[in-house]
Design a protein that fits this description.
- It is a single chain.
- The chain has 2 domains: 8-121, no CATH class; 138-244, Tetratricopeptide repeat domain (Serine Threonine Protein Phosphatase 5, Tetratricopeptide repeat, Alpha Horseshoe).
- α2 (24-36) packs across α3 (38-53), α4 runs antiparallel to α5 (82-102) and α10 (186-196) packs antiparallel against α11.
- By secondary structure, the chain is mostly helical.
- It is globular, with a radius of gyration of 22 Å.
- 72% of the residues lie in helices and 0% in strands.
- The protein has helices at residues 8-18, 24-36, 38-53, 57-76, 82-102, 106-121, 138-148, 152-163, 170-182, 186-196, 205-219, 222-229, 235-244.
- The protein starts with 7 loop residues before the first helix and ends with a helix.
Amino acid sequence: MDLSDISQDEFEKIEAYLNSKLEPKHLLEFEAKLKNDADFKIKVEDIKTVLSGIETQALKEQLNVFHNDLEIEHRTQPITDTVKVRSLNWKRLLIAAALVIAAGSFWFLNGNSNERLYAKYFTPDPGLPTTMSTNNNYDFYEAMVNYKQGDYKTAISKWETLQKSKPNNDTLNYFIGVAYLANKKEGDAISFLEKSIKNSNFPLANDAYYYLGLAYLKEGNIEKAKANLQNSTIDNSKVLLSKLND
């Protein structure tokens, strides 16, 4: 993980986004960049990993030492410039992250490796057109509107209601699965995506295998990730598979 090219301002925006505190006027711009810039997505995942790593005991202990140092610095040489203080804290955070990496934290390094690949290659399925020209499947397409608006929880709730009466419907199982994946619930996504690929004639089978591979990758099950990616002819499946085989 190389955090040297992440500026203080960029870190603060990413942190605000991860904590759901980014101002609405900046949120759309941020999400557009997140969707279209693979390198930026990796930066966001790196910061997410660092912030999550702070919860580990080893890093907490290091930060306690740094906070004590800061208190001493404040007593001996008061700093009134807020920007300087925040910059100093950011430097301390980088040092703390570096110490955890240097210590060989298995969770930190391996989790980050899988998450970096997942973040780079995962993009939510764009969904089906929602013209609503036919009312036969109105409930399905109403949920599709929710899905395309990013309201995955509502879409899942509506689709699961339909799925209860059609438990083997490939399309329903597929979109419930990708909605769970987009909603960062990989375990739930896997069960539905597994159901969707049981029919070899399912038109979206290639996509289902790809997303299933990504779900297993995020879960850390590399062998199952590879097995499913091998069944998909999508270009990104081949590229991702080659990276996993390196």
